[in-house]
Structures are given as structure tokens and as C-alpha cells.
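agent> fetching stored inputs for the 4-(N,N-dimethylamino)cinnamoyl-COA docking request
agent> found them:
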Amino acid sequence: MTVFQFIQTEVHDRVGLVRLNRPEALNALNHTLVSELMSALENFDQDAQIGAMVVCGNERAFAAGADIKEMAEASAVEMLKRDNISQFDRIINIKKPVIAAVSGWCLGGGNELAMSCDMIIASETARFGQPEINLGVIPGAGGTQRLARAVGKAIAMEMVLNNRTLTAQEALQFGLVNRVVPVERYLDEALSLAGEIAGRAPLAVRLGKAAINHAYESFLSDGLADERRAFYLLFASRDQKEGMAAFVEKRKPNWKGV
Ligand code: DAK
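agent> prediction call returned; pasting C-alpha cells
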């Protein structure tokens, strides 16, 4: 088992859990933490026993942003050379579903990380924001792009230009999160949703995730063509035959991921 400095990993049945674990800094995302997180997600992605993943922080903070102390004195050239964005981008290549379980502060790079996941389960105490404007900068890891797509232009403008923070209920209303639950339940809710998805046909889950993500990368016609190819491809899988046979025979399917 790999030993990490700023995260902890656990396995719950077929779900891989990554806990951000830098509580003294509200899980501020320093370089090491982000690269450990991405390595853990990549390991789970390669593990045939795992069907979905959850990323959480603690009750007080999912993550209060990128580590301001780590970058405060950096020059533009140093920032370019560090290229921390490519660390963040590793999550894009994770093929299994990743759910963010968010309680407390979810700010700046923390919100960008949550938005890079496929779904967000929020506790009632979650607070979402992009406060970079207070530091004289703007979001640097997708916060303008993913946020505008998630909550729409009007709310994204207020958040990025004027540090508007969303309550969990507002985040639900604006479409940023999937559901809001009491703080005692947010992690169990995320694990339960991940567990349900992990029990489904793995190839269909994988291609479904890829097809939805394609919707954000392409013209509608390209996305539709990609979706159709993925749909036809699934008819080459044993699980498609099993799933449809199980329906006809009125029994539960037995998924094999092939
Ligand atoms: N970085 C470093 N330390 C942080 C931090 C952060 N983002 N947020 C909190 N901490 C530390 C505090 O400094 C404090 O440490 P000590 O003073 O005890 O040593 C400790 O966590 C507890 O914080 P507070 O004492 O401030 O706690 P409060 O409850 O009073 O306040 C707060 C909670 C969340 C309102 C406050 O901590 C706060 O405003 N934090 C900063 C939030 C923020 O501005 N976040 C955006 C950061 S900029 C990039 C990718 C992404 C980004 C940039 C580049 N690339 C890939 C290149 C993203 C940028 C950002 O996220």
C-alpha cells in the first residue's frame, strides 16, 4: 500500500475513497497533495475490483483552494514552469466515475477540483466559491469554463468577479450539485451512489461517462456521432447480451465488464 503525506485512501466494497487530509490548512491544494490525489485516482482506475471513486475532505473543508502560500511569491515564469495545471488535468483521463463529497469550504481550486469530478454530493454546510478575485487573480484550473457551464453565465460572473459564495441549496438550485444532505450523511450518500454505479455494467458506465463529457468538448453533431458509435460498440460486449437476456428472462444481470 502506498503511503501518502496529504491524502488517505480506503476501499469500500467496489468503491475507492480518497480523503484529502491536510486539515490544518483546510485541505489547501499544494503540489504534493494534488499529485498524490491524482496518483490514487489513477491507481483505482486501473484496479479491476474498483467500479467508482469518491473524493472527500472533512466536515469543515473539502478544500479552501490552491495553496496560496505556495504560489504567493512565484513569478509568471515560475508558475509556467511548475505547470500545476497539468497535474489538475490528470483527472480528465480517469475513466471510472468520480464523485466529490463536499462539506464546508469548497473554494477556488477546491471548487475546480469538485467540478472536475463527475458528480457532487453536498452537505447542508457546503459553501462554493471562486474567491481568486480577492487575491488579484482569476480561476486557473477550469473555474471560469466549468462553472459557467454548470451554473450559467449570470451566476458565474457574480462568483468570479465579485466573490459570491453559494450555499449548498443555491448550488443545488443552480445545477452545480446533484443533491444536498445533512452533514452527518454526505459521505455515506456519496459512497452509496458510487456503490450503486459500481454495481452496474462497467463498459456501459465507462462509455456513458465519456459520451456525456464529450457533450462539453464538441459540436452537438460530433457528440451525437460519438454517442452512437459508443452505443453500437456496446453490442460487441458480453454484458449487453447478458443485460438484455436478463431482462427477457426476468432475472438480475450478472455483469462481468467484458
Ligand atoms: N492556501 C493556504 N492556506 C490556507 C488556504 C489556502 N487557500 N486557506 C486556508 N488556509 C490556511 C490558513 O492560512 C490558516 O493557516 P494558519 O494561519 O492556521 O497557519 C488555516 O488554513 C485555517 O484558515 P483560517 O484561519 O483562515 O480559517 P477561517 O475559518 O477563519 O477562514 C476561509 C476560512 C476559507 C474563509 C479562509 O481560510 C480563506 O479565505 N481561505 C482562502 C480561500 C481562497 O482565497 N481560496 C482561493 C485560493 S486561490 C492553478 C490551479 C488552481 C488555482 C491556481 C492555479 N494552477 C493549476 C496553476 C487556484 C487558485 C486558488 O484556489
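agent> quick read of the result: The chain has two domains: 7-198, 202-248.
agent> awaiting further instructions
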